[in-house]
Amino acid sequence: MKMMSEMWTTMGSTLASFMFLWTIMRQYCPYGVQRFLEKYTHRIMNYFSPYIRISFHEYMGDRLKRSEAYAAVEAYLSANTSKSAKRLKAELGKDSSNLVLTMDEYERVTDEHKGVKVWWVSNKVMSPTRSSMSYYPEQERRFYKLTFHNKYRDLITESYLEHVMREGKEIRLRNRQRKLYTNSPGYKWPSYKQTMWSHIVFEHPATFETMALEPEKKKEIIEDLITFSKSKDFYARIGKAWKRGYLLHGPPGTGKSTMIAAMANLLAYDVYDLELTAVKDNTELRKLLIETTSKSIIVIEDIDCSLDLTGQRKNKADKLSDEETDKDVVGRKEGKEEGGSGSKVTLSGLLNFIDGIWSACGGERLIVFTTNYVEKLDPALIRRGRMDKHIQLSYCTFDGFKVLANNYLKLQTHPLFDTIKRLIEEANITPADVAENLMPKSPMDDPHKCLSTLIQALEKAAKAEELEQNCPIQHEQLLQQNGSIKENGELPPDKAVNQCQL
Ligand SMILES: Nc1ncnc2c1ncn2[C@@H]1O[C@H](COP(=O)(O)OP(=O)(O)OP(=O)(O)O)[C@@H](O)[C@H]1O
Ligand SMILES: [Mg+2]
Questions:
Q1: CB of 265 closer than 6 A to ligand 1?
Q2: 390: part of which helix (H) or strand (E)?
Q3: Does ligand 1 have an atom closer than 6 angstroms to the CB of 431?
Q4: CB neighbour burial string for 224-245, b if at least 16 within 10 angstroms, e if fewer
C-alpha cells in the first residue's frame, strides 16, 4: 500500500516537472501546434495527476478591466517570493523612489501555507487576433498558475487563497503610486489597453495640517472623510452605494482645490479631474465613470461654468459672459458654435453620473464639485444624497493665518500677531492672498518683514472695503478704470487694495 502511494507521489511530481518544462518550451512553438499538443497532453496528465491547478489571468472576458485577483497575486508573490525567485522583473514603485521586484515570465517559485507546499508559475501566451479585420494587435495573455496536491484542496482554495488575496490587496494599497487622471479631449474611443483617462503621478503636498481653516471645521471634515472610508459594511447594510458627494464653495483663492488634494492625501485616494466641457455626450460621461477605480475622488471644478441650469452645455470661456453686453455674448457664442465641439452633456446626464446605477460600480468614491457661486447651481444637483456635505470656504480668519504663519515662516507667535488679529477680522482677505504676502520675496526677508507686508495689505483691504461701503460710486469708477472686475462684479480685495490708494 505504502509502495503504491509512493509510486503515485513520484508520478505526480514527475508530471508536475514535465508541466513546468512544457510551460517553458511552448513559447517557441507556433500557436496552432501549441493548442493541439496542449489539448491532448492536458487530458492525459489530468487523468493521472494528483495535482490541481488554478490560473489567474490578467484580463478576463472582454479585457475591459485588469483582473483584481491577478493584481493581488502579483503583489503577494512580489512581496513573499521575490527572495526565492531567480529571475525577477524590476519596476519603479511608490513615489518613484524604490524598485519593486516581481517574478519574471516563466519563473517558478514555491510557497508554504500551514506546512503545505504550493507552486506558482508566472506565464504568458500569445493569442492570435480575433479576426483578420481585427483592430487589436496580437495579444499577450499573462497569467499565474497555482499548483497544489489534491488532498489539500479545501485548505488551499479556502484558507490559502483568501490569505493571498487579502495580503496582496494590502500590499498593493501600500505600494501603489497614486495617480491624477484627466480626460484629455484628444483621446479617441478607447482602443486596446488605452483608456479614456490619461494620468500622471499625483504628488500634491497639501494636507489638512497645512490648510488654513478653523480647527473645528477641519476636525469635522477629517472625521467625516475617515468615517466614510471605514464604512464599507455600513453602506452595504443600508443598501446604499459606497460613495459620498462634497460640494466645496467659496470665493476664488479660499482653498477649494487645495482641500481636494488634502482629501486625496488623507485617504490615499487617486484623483480623477473631470473636465466636463471636454466630454462629448452623456454616453461618454458614463464610460468615463465606469473606468474610474475605487478609492478615488472624482472632481468637477467650477461646476457652474460647465453646465447651465437648464442642462445645456456652457463653455468655461463663458465664465464672464454674465457680465458682458448682450452683443458680446451673442457674438462670442455664435463664433463658438461654428467651430463647436458638439458636446451634449445634460443636467440629467450629470445627475445619472452621480446617482445612476453605474455610479455604484467600483465603490469607495468621493464626488467633489467646486464652485464660486453656489447660488447659481440647480438645487437638484446639490441636494443631500447627491452632494451630501456642503463645505463653505471663506476669507482668512486669525486661526487660518496662524496655520499659514507656521507653514510659511515657522512662527507660532510674534509681537505683530495682535495687530494682525485685529485687522484680519475687519478685512476680507483670502488665504491665497495671506499666503502670498507671507512668502519671502528675497533671501533678506525675515519673518518681521513678511508680517509687516501682510499688515500693509490688510490695512489696504480694510480701506477698500470702507470705500465700497461709504462711497460706492467712487469705488465703481475705480473698478471700471482698472477693468479688473471680479466675475461676480465685486473687486477682489487685493485689486481693491492696489486701486484705492487712499
Ligand atoms: N485654506 C487654505 N489653506 C492653505 N493655503 C491656501 C488656502 N486657500 C488658498 N491657499 C493657497 O492659495 C493657493 C490657491 O488656492 P486654491 O487654488 O486652493 O483656491 P481655490 O479656492 O481653488 O480658487 P478658485 O476658486 O480660483 O479655483 C493655493 O495654492 C494655496 O497655496
Ligand atoms: Mg480651484
A1: no
A2: strand 389-392
A3: yes
A4: ebeebbebeeebeeeeebbbbb
- Whole-number CA gyration radius for the chain: 30
Q: What is the pLDDT of residue 321?
A: 43
Residue 39 is which amino acid? K
d(CA 395, CA 430): 5
Q: Is 257 in the pocket of ligand 1 (CB under 6 A)?
A: yes
- Domain 181-392: state its class: alpha beta
In angstroms, the CA 152 to CA 164 distance is 16
Helix (H) or strand (E) holding 386: none
Grid cell of 22 as nine digits:
512544457
In terms of C-beta density within 10 A (0-12 exposed, 13-18 middle, 19 or more buried), how is residue 176 classed?
middle
Q: Is 372 in the pocket of ligand 1 (CB under 6 A)?
A: yes
Mean pLDDT by 10 residues, the chain (502 residues): 58 66 69 72 74 86 72 87 74 66 82 92 73 54 90 92 92 82 65 68 93 94 96 91 94 96 94 91 88 91 73 45 36 35 76 79 88 89 89 95 94 94 90 94 90 93 79 68 44 42 36
Give pLDDT, residue 280.
86
**pLDDT at residue number 478:** 62
Residues in the chain: 502
Residue located nearest, by CA, to atom 17 of ligand 1: 257
Of 254, 216, 212, which is closest to residue 394 (Cα–Cα)? 254
CB burial of residue 261 (10 Å; 0-12, 13-18, 19+): buried
Query: Ligand 1: which residue has its CA nearest to atom 31?
Result: 432
Q: Which ligand is nearest to the CA of 432?
A: 1
